[in-house]
Amino acid sequence: MARAYRKVIKLIPYEDALKKIFSTLCNRASVHEIVPVDKACGRILAEDIYAHIDVPENNISLVDGFAVKCEDVVGASQEKPVRLRVIGKLYPWSDTSSAKISDGEAYYVACGAPIPSGANAVIKVENVVLCGEEIEVKMSATVWENICLRGEDIKRGDLILRKGALLRPQDIGVLAGLGIKRVKVLRKPRIAIISTGNELIEKSKRDPEAIPNNYALILAGLISKIGGEPMMYGIVPDDITEIREKICSALNESDIIMTIGGCSLGERDFVPEAVNLLGEPGVIFHGVMIKPGRVSAFGMIGGKPIVMLPGLFASTIAGFYLIFVPSISCYMGLSIDLLLPKVNAKICRDVPADKKPYHTFLPTSIKSSGEDLIAEPIMDGPASLIRFINANGFILLPPKRGLSKGERVNVTLFSSDELFRIMPA
Amino acid sequence: MARAYRKVIKLIPYEDALKKIFSTLCNRASVHEIVPVDKACGRILAEDIYAHIDVPENNISLVDGFAVKCEDVVGASQEKPVRLRVIGKLYPWSDTSSAKISDGEAYYVACGAPIPSGANAVIKVENVVLCGEEIEVKMSATVWENICLRGEDIKRGDLILRKGALLRPQDIGVLAGLGIKRVKVLRKPRIAIISTGNELIEKSKRDPEAIPNNYALILAGLISKIGGEPMMYGIVPDDITEIREKICSALNESDIIMTIGGCSLGERDFVPEAVNLLGEPGVIFHGVMIKPGRVSAFGMIGGKPIVMLPGLFASTIAGFYLIFVPSISCYMGLSIDLLLPKVNAKICRDVPADKKPYHTFLPTSIKSSGEDLIAEPIMDGPASLIRFINANGFILLPPKRGLSKGERVNVTLFSSDELFRIMPA
Fold it and tell me: Does domain B341-421 have CATH number 2.40.340.10?
């Protein structure tokens, strides 16, 4: 009897795949943790932060100088200096409560020191000559000159950082400066990465020191960059029982499972079947109208998402960006834009529309050309690893849509590292 | 006797400061280390990498299908299928040495499997019907259709990555895919960060849980981002002996020393003096025509650079980017562009030229507006911490140079993290 030599899957449009991911994951309560502020760099804030103090907390001097009353130095000049009596010194660590000047008096104030009450300007030391206990001031001053007023930088009650912000080093410094000791951040989801394929096992037998699952290594690196915590689960052979067992143990120890390989339609592709053996709902979709990466699959077991990526590199990486990244961003309750940076560039050649109703994942290199960024799609063969060295990101083309030379496009960068390769001269 | 109430320093032009840094550090042999390839992500390559194998190593199939001779299926169609005898199966892990087809024969080849000798095309399984030991092929094929040829991706001898490249996850994957197990990378310089100031010590006495040296925390985070290894050396009071001792112990344990505070011209500013007590050449310059940050200093003790940053935040950060970053890049033998990403943007308002012959460090926020990036200089008071939350980078203005609204400028980003805040819609 004649029969088709292949499993059959029904491809769904990419939008439908995204909808299924969102509807499966959208009701998850995102998981937070409280971390010390000095350990929070690179984490994503899970609360709005308001200032509960003024910064600075007192009026302070912006220079080394003398705190004076403006009124005392009206008309002071090189020719007609004004003499003031210095009655004390203040440093940044000084307590200001008892410091006070009256008419004809001045206080030495170091840069950052509080301003004594009664004073309303600071004369820089270079505009003053010291004469024993007195100073000769050789210029006049305007009100609040060289003074940073209490709350001028940050006012109590100001919104400082919004929920969802990636905490940069300077944010951490500001939080610490506000006296905040701990912040609520998203817990990093732990991603179990399982490579499948007898060929990988054969390779590692031939050379035990080699890293045959190098795609897993790439994805682990990219996962770290988008805020996940990769966990390497090694290689399983193309055996349904072994795959099921490996996924089962990963489900116990991680938040999201990612498999590489074994989800195509060949006779040795067992991953989706193994997922279905593990419980309900199992595989939610298998087959998406994306190119490459169409055999990518998504499932759910015990409330944990399982993203199944194809094994051929161009497909693996397309599945990673088009299926896995939306899944993890949805899981974390974040917009994808927060995980993957984008740049706007001008495309340097025509890209013909594909005839099929597929979304196309187009690896793209970006060059800086004077004032503009130029995007060049890299359209080599589908197996090419090297083009991912030359590419900096990708364009996602909607079905049946081409691009014309000179058109502007948004290019999603593979990670923020790419910035170092596309800079203006 | 009348006297100036201030130490005096002679400011040097910024270009001269850079020249002194370069001439002091340029003859350093940069220090390398060999690391396993899977630990090399984020490191900077210290050697050119060439491929020593072809990728793929054999001709391989890009699809699940049947390897055939094109000549056998000329004219095959839905109506006139061609029958071929299937004589074996090949998988990605199969040894190809004995596999061979003759006229009228075919091999099943899984995606990624080697192509048997004699075959020159692969027919996808969906275009084939299986009939016992035979297949019916319903379409013709072109030579090398669905085959990735040996070396098509990477050829033996190809230059893969250049010395000086920041290794991204995908680079690591390619290196591992080439069978490379270890790579030579720059050793990360260890940067000792010493905060000075009695006020910081007072603050930490009042609240032992607080982090009074929050500027050090910011700089530590930024140092990590540019490839250094920050080491926190805590806070020293404004005491010349204690400062000297702290720098002395840091010199033993780190590669570069960075101090914060204590290098201004007040009576409690002891850092440059302390450096000079430690040996020759000591302070190489103190005072640079930059604004803010003019009291920044640079020195050298025992072959180790010491960068002295002012303590007022706007000055600290200007000194960090204008003096420290050139120092560490020179120390590592790298161009500054490799450490700090830049973007090109259009400025949204006039910036008047400064009258003094100073370089101006202008914190700048960047907004994405449709196709373009818009740069907005943030010109608040000099003590403002908050503007570093709103800024994404800086413009360095040469002396006496202003900017006109609409002009294009290069903005150096504080770090690649900033990309997440300036993206196109």
Answer: yes
